[in-house]
Design a protein that fits this description.
Length: 70
Amino acid sequence: MKDSSKLRRSLAKAFCWESISFIIAILFTGWYLGSWQVSLELTSILFVIKLTFFLIHERIWHQIRWGKHS
């Protein structure tokens, strides 16, 4: 698999997971804080941060040979 394909796959995985996480976080923080506006702002910031770190994590793991078949 080409590196650009791996990057697109990692991005799709990260975006998919973070979208699910975003919905869960919005519902929980909105309920807990009692403010849907604050919940949306906080969760949006965390979405970008977590997406970025997930992509970095994925790229590092693609470089590790452990557990891969040749």
